[in-house]
Amino acid sequence: MRRDNDRRKATVFIVFALFILWGFGWNTVGRRLLTSIDGVIVVRRVVPSATEYTVRGDDGSEKVFRAGATDASLPGSMPVGTRIRKKLWHLDYERDGRRESFPWIMYSSVLGIALSLVVWGILILRSQPPKPLHENNRRRVSGSLRCISQHII
After folding, report:
1. What DSSP assignment string belongs to 11-25?
2. pLDDT digits (tens, 9 = 90+) for 34-50
């Protein structure tokens, strides 16, 4: 009984931690790292649950990107005429020449806790001996194997 509770607890730890790693890791930090934009905002349009910006680069090309309500994107409150520069694989960005930082301490803490939960859950699962087959299952398996072997021969 205790073994089943430990396995259940470990599974809950791992599933919860993977959800946190996805939400805070990939869905927030990952998207922020993959954002790359450099230019001046020429159009700002509010759409449902986001702000859509058109940014004109130094070479005259225009790029459209969306800013949502999470830390994964840049803020949705920048006015037209704002110069923004966000490099690929950087969490911070420049807004009119000022560096705007990312709350990396909070995200590092949350991701560290989630990773610890995954490791803890794996250690709990590995510390448990394998669950033995019940006698009924052994007969059923051996009988099935006997039937299969007779059909093959």
Report:
1. HHHHHHHHHHIIIII
2. 999 999 999 999 998 89
Range of the domain at 15: 2-123
How far apart, in whole angstroms, are the C-alpha atoms of residue 2 and residue 35? 47
List the 37-47 sheet strands across, edge first: 62-67, 50-56, 37-47, 83-86, 93-95, 98-100
Domains contained in the chain, number: 1
Q: Per residue in 68-100, pLDDT tens?
A: 888 898 999 999 999 999 999 999 999 999 999
Q: Which two tokens stand for residue 48?
A: 């449902």
Give the span between the Cα atoms of 99 and 105, in whole angstroms. 17
Q: Does residue 146 belong to any structural domain of this protein?
A: no
Beta bridge partners of 93: 100
Side chain identity at residue 14, one-letter code? I
Handedness of CA 94, 41, 74, 64 (dihedral sign): negative
Contact (Cβ atoms closer than 8 angstroms) between residue 82 and residue 68: no
What letter does residue 26 receive in the DSSP assignment?
A: I
Please state the pTM of the whole predicted model.
0.73
Cα 85 to its chain centre, rounded Å, is 24
